[in-house]
Amino acid sequence: MSKTADMIVWAQDPFSDDIIPRSFRVFRKPDLKKVKSRDIFVLTSVPDLPTVTEFVRAANHRNHLRTLFVREDENAQFLPQMLYEAKLG
């Protein structure tokens, strides 16, 4: 199996469509079954952090989360607090 086949992206952020390589498997809705994948990337925005929290926490616990990208528009000052409350920071 190729390395890119193990990479998946949860694109919660609709603005991420143009930046994700086509070689990545992309899903748009939370699916805890996907946590078993080895290399997980999550793209979200600050207001959508509560939506991805459970999935990101599970993937991180299994050491499968590679990156959590958070797009910040207006509420960036709340980002550290939200990550802390989600037990991710």
Task: Describe the fold and architecture.
The structure is a single chain. With 89 residues, this protein is an alpha/beta fold. The protein has one domain. 22% of the residues lie in helices and 25% in strands. Strands 2-1-3-4 form a 4-stranded parallel beta sheet, with helices on one face. The longest helix has 13 residues. It is globular. The termini are far apart. The model has no long low-confidence stretch (mean pLDDT 77).
Summary?
The protein is of the alpha/beta class and 89 residues long. Helices cover 22% and strands 25% of the residues.
List keywords for this structure.
4 strands, 2 helices, alpha/beta, four-stranded parallel sheet, single chain, 89 residues
N-to-C CA distance: 33 Å
Oligomeric form: single chain
Task: Provide the domain count.
Answer: 1
> What proportion strand?
15-25%
Broad structural category: alpha/beta
Spatial strand arrangement across the major sheet: 2-1-3-4
Radius of gyration: 13 Å
Specify the number of helices.
2
Large-scale geometry: globular
Return residue spans where pLDDT drops below 50 for at least 5 consecutive residues: none
Taken in chain order, the helices and strands follow as EEEHEH
Write the layout of secondary structure elements.
Blueprint: E1 7-11, E2 25-27, E3 39-45, H1 49-61, E4 65-71, H2 79-85
Parallel strand pairs: 1-2, 1-3, 3-4
